[in-house]
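Hi, here's the filled form for the chain we discussed.

Project: internal
Contact: R.S.
Residues: 311
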Amino acid sequence: MLPFKLIYHDRYDLNLGAHVFPSQKFRLIRDKLHNDAFASPEDFLAPEFADDADVLRVHTSGYVRKLKNGGLSREEIARLEVPYSLELVDAVWLAAGGSILAGQCALRDGWASNIGGGFHHAHPGHGEGFCAIHDVAIAIRRLQFDRAIKTAMVVDTDVHQGNGTAAIFANDETVFTLSIHQLNNYPFYKPPSSIDVDLPDGVGDEDYLHILDQHLRLAFEQCSPQILYYVGGADPYCEDQLGGLALTIKGLAARDKLVFEYARRHGVPVVTTLAGGYARRVEDTVAIHVNTILAVRDAANAAIAAMKKTV
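And the returned structure, exactly as it came back:
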């Protein structure tokens, strides 16, 4: 068994068909974890739908009503960039429930992974960039409402800036946001995060890891979070169709390890979510996301070993 919980639901898959966003990746990640014996059935928990009250802590009532009742305009659906359906609504409400549950588990166990979520482009009053509602923001607001935490950090390593995250938590001193992303890529307007790392095209493993290390150090100097939500995009990969960075699968695994090592050294519970990944071979996207979960496993085991040494 893993020393942390994996959150997953079969209805995370949006069944989009021939779409650049491979929503079947959620199921494929679960299957690979099973088939390669990385995880047992006891490691998985199924989320409930997020309560509408939790969603409304982040999103406007008008937008939530249109989402749930099929009232989005053509322009709003076009901005979302995925076909609208009630199946989509169920999937993202489950993903938000998954990120809430993962946060609760991480506060108890130190670590948790939502095999879904990371919908970081969603804004309070609209969805965009394949993101209908912002599961990470919803989870943080729920944990704050429950008084389980006061402060949080979001570390976003998707190739696209977390513009929804930045907009939602603007001028909020309780939530520190770090986004490291390709500058010349979507979104074209990038509202300011607490720290934005705008990378030029073509950055590879060595430079990326050095830059990330510098900015993680700076983030933890400025913030002492009670939980860290990690938005672990697979799309900085060199063969991603929607990215322009040049990281290898090995480099992406080192990226994850670096983030988790900072969290472990500072004693901060971690939740991982998956975010983007559009490799030409969906198997590569799946491998990158599975490696993120394996990096959590390694960090959790290292934390347990360190604790035993002090006893």
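Let me know if anything looks off before we file it.
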